[in-house]
Amino acid sequence: MNQVTGGPMADVRDMYMVHAMLRREFRLLPQLVRDVAPGIVKRAEVVATHAEFVCRLLHLHHEGEDLLLWPLLLTRGGEKAASIVPAMEEQHKAIHEAYGEVTALLPAWRSTARGAEALAGALERLLTTLEEHLETEEEEILPLATKYVTAAEWKRLGEHGMANSPKKTLPLAFGMTMYEGKPEVVRAVLAEAPLPARLIISVVGPRLYAAHAKRVHGTRKPPRIGT
Questions:
Q1: Is residue 163 part of a domain?
Q2: Is residue 108, in this structure, part of any structural domain at all?
C-alpha cells in the first residue's frame, strides 16, 4: 500500500453535488419522455437534447473515474480498495450497457416522438443501475479518496470532464450541478477557476440552468432531491 503523506487531500464534497444532479435529472427523465404525446416532434427534440446532455455528463464523469481514480485507489488503498474497486468497475460496465440502450433508442424517438415507453423503460433501467452505483460510491469510495487521493489529483477528475466537453456547454453544466449545491461547496469549486471564469460561471450558470429547466421541466425550479 502506497500511503500518501503531506499536502492537502481530496475534498470530495463536490462529488456529492455532482451525484445530486445526476440523480435529479435521471429520475425526472422517464416521465418527461412519457409525457410527450406521440408525433409531437418539437417537444421530443427538447427532451431528447436534454437526455443526450445528461448522458454525456454521466459518461465523462465515469470515464474520468476509470482513467484517474481507480488506478490511484488500487495502488494506495490496500485491501479495502482491492475489494471494492473491481465492483465499481463492474457497475460502470453495467451502466455503460444501459447507457448504450438509451442512446440507441433516442434518435428514432427524437425524430418521430413514437416509442416512448421503450425509451422510458431503458431510462428507468439506467437509473436503477446508476443509483445503486452512486450509493456504493458514496459509502465506500469517497472515504477512501479522502485518505489516498491528493487535492491536486482529485482536481484532475473535474479537469478531464471540462477538457472533453464543448466549452459552450460548460456554464450550463455548472449551473445544473450547482442547483442543489451547498453554497460553501459551490464556493470551494469555483475558487479553483480563474477569476473571469469564476464570475461568469457563478452568475451565468444558474441563469442558464433556470432557462433550460423551464424549457425542459416546465419550471425554473425543478424538484430538488437533496444533496
A1: yes
A2: yes
CB 10 within 8 A of CB 153: yes
Per-residue pLDDT, 193:
77
Rg (CA), the chain: 18
Number of domains into which the chain is organized: 1
Query: Rounded CA gap, 59 and 102, in Å?
Result: 12
Q: What is the pLDDT of residues 158-189, one digit of tens each?
A: 899 989 999 899 999 999 999 999 999 999 98
CA distances to 29, 95, 215 from 101, in Å: 15, 10, 25
Predicted model pTM: 0.94
Task: Give CA 52 to chain center in angstroms.
Answer: 12
Task: Quote the domain boundaries for residue 70.
Answer: 13-217
Residues 18, 177 contacting (CB under 8 angstroms): yes
Residue-wise pLDDT tens digits, 111-157: 999 999 999 999 999 999 999 999 999 999 999 999 999 999 999 99
CA 94 to chain centre: 16
Q: Is residue 77 part of a domain?
A: yes
Q: Is residue 6 part of a domain?
A: no
The dihedral through the CA atoms of 121, 16, 222, 200 has a sign that is: negative
Dihedral, 72, 139, 172, 99 alpha carbons, nearest 10: 80
What is the reported pLDDT for 198?
Answer: 80
